[in-house]
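Raw record, unedited: Mevalonate kinase
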Amino acid sequence: MKGPLFYAKILLFGEYGIIKDSKGLAIPFNAYRGALKTTEVLEGNSKTSNENLFKFYNYISALNSDLVSFNLKEFKTDLEKGMYFDSSIPQGYGVGSSGALVASIYDKYANNKITVLENLTRDKLLSLKEVFSLMESFFHGKSSGLDPLNSYLSLPILINSKENIEPAGIPSQKEGKGAVFLLDSEQIGETEPMVSIFMNKMKNEGFRKMLSEEFSASTDACIEDFLQGNVKSLFGNVKNLSKIVLKNFKPMIPDAFHKVWEKGIKTNDYYLKLCGSGGGGYILGFTEDFSKAQESLKDYKLELVYRF
């Protein structure tokens, strides 16, 4: 058995804001992917994956939900035959490793599943998101369901609010100097502790005001610019967003990168923002001149995501 491929995702804009119902934009990232496979000899990573899938099977078996049902008998039989999730998506890096796994399990075992080939109405998208939120909560304690949705559909998704999501057309890539890239912090980030820090900060009225006014406005402007292809304006708004994140989300930025973050804002060589919940994993970078950013960040591993 070899299942279809499901890709990683990158939340270009909207981290933390989407928890509080502001806009977000997520795109598939095809450099990393995963698929369900079966092996007769489980060892190392495949053994660990199979054990974790058994735990996930138990979780899904106990779900008492009208939203979705699964062919549990087939799921269990496949696990006993040595099924595992073979994935190149790094875990704890903010690019949706559990999302791709959830998408693959839904695709293979959900009864009456909503397929990618259907006319994806808003209601169908929201149903899928709800199902995926329920499934992915096994991994994070609380999940928006967006990562699996992105992986399942393999389409850019615009999040207008919790109740309003739609597939988005993004401008096709150009062979220009500008780029979106990933900067590897070489540290694992854990979602749950970061979200806890955020929720504690939300008890502070000043932080809530900053989030609903400055952060949301800046994020919305970036999304608008990106979708419209307004590159010049985009970089001004990304710089502003980078400053807001550095000032208000310091605990989510690994200590070793505070100065690197500041350097980008000062030199305009690049601007950094969180990729996912932060605390490690990847940091997302935007630059008007990728070769200049590479030179400026030559001590770090960079990966190209999108060209302007």
